[in-house]
Amino acid sequence: MSKKIVVLGAGTGGTIISNNLRRHLPEDWEITVIDRDDQHIYQPGMLFVAFDIQKPGRLVKSRRKYIMPGINFVIDEIVRVDPDKKEVTTLNHKFSYDFLVISTGCRIAPEENDGLLDAWGKNAFTFYTIPDAELLRNKLKEFDGGKVVLNIAELPFKCPVAPIEFIFMADWYFKQKGIRNKVEIELVTPLQGAFTKPKASAVFTASAKEKNIRITPAFELSSVNGKGKYIESVKGDKVKYDLLVSIPTTLGDKMISDSGIDDGIGYVPTHQNTLKALKHEGVYVIGDATNVPTSKAGSVAHYEADVVVFNIMAEIHGVKPEEIFDGHSTCFIVYSKGTSSVIDFNYKIEPLPGQFPMPKLGPFSLLKETKMNWYGKLGFEWLYWNVLLAGRHLGAPPTLVMAGKEVG
Ligand SMILES: Cc1cc2nc3c(=O)[nH]c(=O)nc-3n(C[C@H](O)[C@H](O)[C@H](O)COP(=O)(O)OP(=O)(O)OC[C@H]3O[C@@H](n4cnc5c(N)ncnc54)[C@H](O)[C@@H]3O)c2cc1C
């Protein structure tokens, strides 16, 4: 009898792991991957759509095209997971499994933020979906002066560097338009600084200061008042805006909560080193769907996929899963159309300066704004579609490499 692996979600993590598993497992292992549609979106490009330097059509490709032959790709809405019966229910089918990989990502939920939907599309926008990024692009085009506020509603949220990229890109954009002197830019965040890790936070804060961008930390959003054009914190502090760019409350997929396997906000409690679901046998979790304390980023999903393939194969061979994953995350931080920084870190080691990925040679410079890093960011899109989604890697381990990093 064939053995079955079911993968939930064919986004970044689900596509990578399905292909990676297909390469490693013999044919009597049946691999099924399920997603609600056939549209794979390159999500980092949505920031560029907002600033009108990328066309939205280029970001969307057929999922099927990136899923290897020998994998069953099913388009259907997943409605329930039953880990006791080892069964997944979709609108039209039921699937049993020996191993399950959950990679259903996360979603913005602006309805969770008091007052936000009243202002939505009027003076409050986001760039976390393609239609929203297009609306923001149109608004930015007609904006002729005033205060732009980027607000993160609450933690956790997807892509922790995206807000920093947005404020730096906004500085560049309004300079290009020749109206920077008429625009105030402010980042209002629940974090204690610009970023979660102190060294990187200090570097980003210094760059923001140079660009005359204000950062307001420790702001826990209570409500948005679109008519009065301000946001208010739970302590009663108010920040005025003319244009609000919001990263609303972010939740895991509803199906995870409906199945009763979540942590209260839609994420699956996951062992931070094995990536196995804490409460269920035969279930692994990767990407934004986990509750592990690292970035919700595509690079993380890619590193995690290698670890989960290793652990599923270990279990098939009767060996206990290994505690390999170290929270490794790598992110480009775009400063302008033409320059970028890059960071590489894990649960314990914060982003450090140095050369990446090769010591001395780079060609990328960590925690530094360079032209070469920008070319890296552009090249990454090609790498994503042509190498990473296929579940291939570049010879590097999934864990953080210290070579090239400057400690101390
Ligand atoms: C604006 C923006 C910029 C970003 N920039 C970067 C960056 O520069 N670098 C970086 O590394 N990361 C970046 N990211 C984050 C990155 O895109 C995500 O972290 C990554 O895609 C997570 O992969 P995933 O597989 O967990 O989720 P996703 O890729 O979102 O895939 C989840 C899939 O599950 C499917 N699904 C969910 N629920 C169901 C259901 N009930 N039924 C059927 N299908 C379902 C969805 O349709 C989706 O295809 C950015 C994200 C955004 C929004």
Using DSSP, what is the number of strands?
A: 24
Which percent band covers the strand fraction? Answer: 25-35%
Helix content: 25-40%
On the 0 to 100 scale, the average pLDDT is 97
Describe, in plain words, how this protein is organized in 3D.
The protein has helices spanning 12-24, 45-50, 116-119, 130-142, 162-177, 198-210, 254-258, 298-316, 371-388, and strands at residues 3-8, 29-35, 39-41, 60-62, 71-75, 78-82, 87-90, 94-96, 99-102, 106-108, 124-125, 146-152, 183-188, 213-216, 221-225, 230-233, 238-240, 243-247, 250-252, 283-285, 329-336, 339-345, 354-358, 362-366. It folds into 3 domains: 3-107 and 251-316, FAD/NAD(P)-binding domain; 110-250, FAD/NAD(P)-binding domain (3-Layer(bba) Sandwich); 329-388, no CATH class. Strand 6 and strand 7 form a beta hairpin. The chain is α/β, with parallel strands linked by helices. The relative contact order is 0.14. The strands form 8 sheets. It has a 5-stranded parallel β-sheet, covered by helices on one side. A 5-stranded parallel β-sheet has the order 11-18-12-13-14. The chain has a 3-stranded antiparallel β-sheet with strand order 6-7-8. Helices cover 26% and strands 27% of the residues. Flavin-adenine dinucleotide binds next to helix 1, strand 2, helix 2, helix 8 and strand 21. This is FAD-dependent pyridine nucleotide-disulphide oxidoreductase. One of its GO terms (molecular function) is oxidoreductase activity. Pfam families: Pyr_redox_2. InterPro entries: FAD/NAD-bd_sf, FAD/NAD-binding_dom, SQRD.
